[in-house]
Write a structure and sequence with these properties.
Two copies of one chain form a homodimer.
Chain A: H1 8-21, H2 25-28, H3 33-60, H4 65-70, H5 74-82, E1 90-91, H6 94-104, H7 107-110, H8 115-135, H9 147-170, H10 181-189, H11 193-208, H12 211-219, H13 224-231, H14 234-249, H15 251-255, H16 277-309, H17 315-331, E2 338-339, H18 341-349, H19 356-371, H20 373-376, H21 381-393, H22 398-407, H23 409-425, H24 427-446, E3 451-456, E4 463-465, E5 477-482, H25 491-504, E6 510-514, H26 523-538, E7 542-546, H27 550-557, H28 561-565, E8 570-571, H29 574-581
Parallel strand pairs in A: 5-6, 6-7, 7-8
Antiparallel strand pairs in A: 1-2, 3-4, 3-5
Helix pairs in contact in A: 3-18, 3-19, 3-21, 5-17, 5-19, 6-9, 6-16, 8-16, 8-17, 9-21, 9-23, 9-24, 11-14, 11-21, 12-13, 16-17, 16-18, 22-23, 23-24
Chain lengths: 582, 582
């Protein structure tokens, strides 16, 4: 019997395991009434934002409105259970939506029909990819998307989103003009006056709900929480007002203004009828990019709020949580999800203390789809376009780009290349271009190690870079310090450096390589060192080594290199080499 | 008038330019009778080797025999004019041949017909790729094929070549058994006894021409140059003997033994009728790999002989020379070319002093295709297979693999992965796998910078790693030295390191980052530092900086980071920080 009672340490480790895999338990035990008050308010505000965003982003992605709503229920709750961020609001986001739109517009995907099914596959695949990355601990691979590349990508995608929303805002038909400018002029003149008016009014209302309204309310000494609440109701207000106008004035029937159309009522269905192998294969690259971006953007957003509160985000657990959320969205008929920047900020500034806020928001969304779905049918698409435009406008960060350009020219170039890559070649091509550029520049840096020719600081046993200090040098002796481990990537640079130095100083008779910073020599570098030694000896000089670390010497002793070096020697200290050869 | 006479410096620089672009002029001016004697002998020996190799490698690639012979004439001469290696023998090689065979076996290429035309396109494309790389100075990109990956690739390709030559050696028909083992048994029993006998005798003769014959000749005190000459005639002897046997015994007509068949007589035709865009597009990836491998293998071989004589290989000029040679092979009806290891060694050890040897060999090959092509028709394919097997056998370097495995485990794994990649997934997939593995491990290394917690060496102002030296530390002060520039690739590691250290030592109040080795901070790293500072300040501690270099401080002054650090400070020396905060 006694054996069934867990010991304290076992219980402790069980607890630790639980918290590790279900981070919700890290706050649930100490959850207080005060926490709940904050979370309730934030949850309501975020839900108010989630309804218009869910519908708008689904339509941006080219999907039925309910797929955005469904994506705000179960996936949001799944992240709340598994995620390590206490404020991140996971659900439909603009960047993932445009990436889905881009994937769905591929001719080979279009030809297979049913965009909704394709979107489910994208969610499932990107979720599985994230879970696989979590299992194999590959979260750190995303370190190789630098911030400038990510910022360039986000700005480019936001510009593409805004451009994509101008036609629905003005009620323009899909153009098919090719390169005929006159045709485009006619196309633009074919705007729908009622749609455009409603779109512009929506934009104006949304702008008013920003700084003007909060400024006004603050002047009126309204309590801060109320200011937050009211100012975040802009999108909902636009939806209400514009839908009221549409029904009241019969703008849809009489003036051809586009509306969302019927949204099925009820809870998202659980289904696995999207296992169409052909589509899975074709959508794999797009799914990989969506998963990558969803993860990177979400972690970046989560870190912002975590830093403000001194909390810690665990990247690998985020991969698990976001992967599970995307798998959940596919199983419950939703579009791919990620952490949304504006929504997370609203949630945080509305006072959310834990993911309870998101559980509340998800419940409210569940309630909305069950009981209010008939209200959604008459929402005008132009109002949704206005909401999207205002939401993504702040993602185009021109000022940040100028800062980056001024701070680090290389980063500025990477940012611009990615931005224009997205605009000119497409979403996935742009980010791929940025990543390749980043890796190439990283490899370039790795192949240029720092190397210094050394001289002796007069009257000491210290040896320093001849270019930085006034030191003594020798006619026949060259002391070269290599400041990195020798690998296939940098040994050619070292070889060329030595050749140039020996051409410049033809009177050198002894070369000493100083290995203070060399902690490894790989096979390629060893073979190159053997060849360098051969060439140096062929010209009647000697190659020597000084200050090699223990492990490096152990490795070299297993080879014939030390034998080949003779009459070259291995010196313990640089001083010994200088005394004997100088 | 005076202005038309070049000054000495102008003439000198003209000369330097000439030598730079046409390296042949570096030796032509001082060319002596003695040089010619060596080159003549080496040229004849190499030509004797080129004839069977040319025919054999063309057939290995699945091409008509003459494409191997043509590839040994103009391309060899073009390299002789442009290359910086004095001993490299450029022409048909086994590895390029199997890569061509692999490309030609792609279903989409096969369906377009005429393998000869496809091979010309591969030569032209890989040549143009190499020339483009030379123009854009991208030769150093190939640093990212490490020696173990290259060795694994070569061994794998050699094993594939040997396997591919067993059926022609035994006169087996092409199998179409699928996975039916019994079928294979029947297939193997269907060998042609005459073909197999001739194949085995050929192998035996070739083995005899190796160590046994040279040992015998040395015992008989034969002059060394004669030993070299005789021992290298093995392939030609096998060709003579086996062709004689075929014609004498009518092995082709009566016993169905495969022969080369008619080879057109005359000089290679100059033609550009291979400009088929569809094929160019489909063959591009294969051509890129062939160009890459041709370049890397050729430079590796060229360096071996250059090191033995203290000469220098200029990688970028090699790209030009090999690119031009491959363009030339496409224009004159030959297969893709590269520097061959065994041929270069034969050329070198036969006494070649300059590329004159290769010009002589190319002329002899030209003579052979004009006057002897009718002799080639009856050469049995089994004899050629025997020549190929013996030639590539030494490329499977098991002992070298064991050395690499013992010397550096990571390199050993990379070598084995590439080897098995080639065997299991194919030639191009194998090398791609090796390169990706290499780059990934390089990126991994770049993301793990060396970081040390420092303490003070008692009674000095020196600060050293607490894990390596016995030093004084402080309760409230953490000194952390980061030994690399801070970039997007490694800043996450730094962040995690600091978090762990602060969790381990909760009583720390001040963190000092020591930037002695930090020569740059990129945008991503700066943003991460700002976030780290925010989190450290949120927990009531301070972040400080010490020993930042001038350029780093200049960059930081352009940002708000130094302002945000307060009350954290920037210290000039570590000593100052220790005095004030310790």
């Amino acid at each position: 019997m006694a054996s069934t009672i867990p010991t304290i340490s076992a219980r402790y480790s069980l607890n630790a395991q639980l918290v590790k895999y279900l981070p919700i338990f890290s706050w649930l035990k100490t959850y207080s009434r005060l926490d709940f008050n904050g979370d309730l308010f934030a949850g309501i505000i975020t839900a108010i934002l989630l309804v218009p965003q869910g519908i708008a982003y689904a339509i941006l992605a080219g999907l039925p409105a309910q797929m955005g709503l469904y994506a705000s229920i179960i996936p949001t709750a799944v992240y709340a259970l598994l995620g390590t961020s206490r404020a991140l609001s996971v659900g439909p986001v603009s960047i993932a939506a445009i990436m889905v739109a881009s994937a769905l517009s591929l001719p080979e995907i279009k030809s297979l029909g049913d965009p909704g099914q394709s979107a489910l596959i994208l969610g499932a695949e990107s979720g599985l990819i994230m879970l696989a990355m979590a299992l194999t601990n590959m979260g750190s691979l995303v370190n190789f998307i630098s911030h400038p590349v990510l910022a360039g990508f986000t700005s480019g995608a936001a510009i593409l989103i805004i451009l994509s929303q101008l036609p629905p805002l003005a009620g323009l038909a899909q153009p098919s003009c090719g390169i005929d400018i006159n045709c485009y002029a006619g196309y633009v003149r074919g705007y729908n006056p009622e749609t455009l008016s409603l779109g512009i009014i929506s934009l104006a209302v949304l702008v008013f709900f920003g700084k003007p309204l909060t400024g006004l309310l603050k002047q009126m000494k309204t309590p801060l929480s109320l200011v937050t609440a009211i100012s975040k109701c802009g999108p909902l207000a636009v939806i209400f007002l514009s839908t009221w106008a549409v029904t009241k004035l019969d703008l849809h029937g009489q003036h051809g203004l586009s509306i969302v159309g019927p949204v099925p009522s009820g809870f998202p269905p659980f289904a696995v009828d999207f296992l169409v192998w052909d589509k899975w294969r074709l959508l794999l690259p797009s799914a990989a990019f969506i998963g990558l971006i969803a993860y990177v953007e979400s972690v970046a957003i989560a870190k912002v709020t975590a830093n403000l509160r001194g909390e810690k985000i665990i990247p690998n657990q985020e991969l698990t949580a976001l992967g599970a959320a995307n798998l959940a969205t596919a199983l419950t008929g939703g579009m791919p999800v990620a952490g949304g920047f504006s929504r997370t900020m609203v949630n945080f500034s509305a006072g959310a203390r834990t993911q309870m806020a998101m559980l509340i928001a998800a419940s409210l969304l569940g309630f909305a789809v069950v009981s209010c779905s008939s209200w959604f049918a008459d929402i005008p698409k132009a109002a949704l376009s206005a909401i999207i435009i205002i939401a993504v406008f702040r993602l185009v960060r021109i000022r940040n780009m100028i800062h980056t350009w001024n701070y680090d020219r290389g980063d500025g170039i990477a940012e611009l290349v990615t931005l224009f890559g997205v605009l000119l070649f497409g979403i996935e091509q742009g980010i791929a271009l940025g990543i390749v550029l980043t890796i190439a520049s990283q490899l370039r840096k790795a192949s240029h190690p720092h190397i210094a020719v050394l001289g002796r600081v007069p009257k000491t046993e210290h040896y320093r870079n001849v270019n930085r200090h006034s030191v003594e040098t020798w006619h026949h002796l060259l002391l070269v310090r290599i400041d990195e481990s020798l690998t296939f990537a940098n040994i050619n640079f070292v070889e060329d450096y030595l050749t140039d130095e020996l051409t410049r100083q033809p009177n050198i008779r002894h070369v000493v390589l100083i290995f203070t910073s060399v902690s490894d020599i790989d096979t390629t570098a060893l073979e190159a060192l053997e060849a360098i030694n051969q060439r140096i000896q062929a010209s009647g000089k000697t190659l020597n080594i000084a200050e090699a670390k223990g492990p490096v010497m152990d490795k070299l002793r297993k080879t014939e290199f030390l034998e080949q070096l003779k009459p070259g020697k291995v010196f313990f200290r640089t001083e010994d080499a200088a005394k004997e050869l100088g």
